[in-house]
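Q: I'm writing up a methods section and want to include an example of the input and output format. Could you take the sequence below and give the corresponding predicted structure tokens, formatted cleanly so I can copy it straight into the document?
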Amino acid sequence: MRTLLISLLLAAALGVAACGSSDDTSSGSAGTAASTAAAKPAAAACDKASLPLKSSGTLTVGTDKPAYPPYFEDDKPTNGKGFESAVAYAVAKQLGFAANEVKWIVVPFNNSYAPGAKKFDFDINQISISPKRAERVDFSTPYFAAPQAVVATKGSAAAGATSLADLAKAKLGVQVGTTSLDAVNASIKPSSQPQVFNDSNDTVRALKVKRVDAIVTDLPTAFYLTAAQVPNSKIVGQFQAPGGDQWGLLLEKGSKLTTCVNQALDKLSKAGELERLQKQWMGGDAAPELH
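A: Here is the clean output for your methods example:
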């Protein structure tokens, strides 16, 4: 039956070809070529040997310095400890790389999403996915979604806030280039412009010396700051950033590696590995919701 069907189909195809023009024949050939290309297994393009890397045989990963907990431990991304270090090595393993085949380089936060060529294969540094940044770089699918949090010193007026409106008159600080600034302006709507600092060190220092009443950062960082960096401080509360605050691995615009990184993250997500790493490294007591 199968042989008869194939014969009938072949005869019909020859009849159509005989009646068609040369343009029809050409179109058919192009269609066949396209179908063959589309049929190529996506996995083959993501074989380790096929990956378009910055350095052959090495996966180059970028992040900022200093690298803080709970994302990195001891300021050493290479040790695999901390949420983002662990995620990077988990992605690397999915792509076929051993730990000693991963190279870390320092990339300042603002430089990571600047337009142009990159020296890394991907960067991991609590970088929020946004349409504006996506015009200049590629983002992977999200590996984490973070709420924003307000940190203040105990006893200050800001520390007693129970709503976002209570913070409107406070002097607020944020790190430059982060989505925290957008979150402050959209959700808290402060009466004075938030003070913007060059990096996380300057932001924390401003809180310590009371140059600002409170700072706004992502919730996991807030847990670390109150536990280890800013004595006598507290998390006033957490709130959702407008449109959500999802973090993605950042790649060069148009990178052929983006699809493969997404496949790796998808496997890690379905296996429950991203959730496990989040619980291992990002645990903490719940902070009150601010509305």
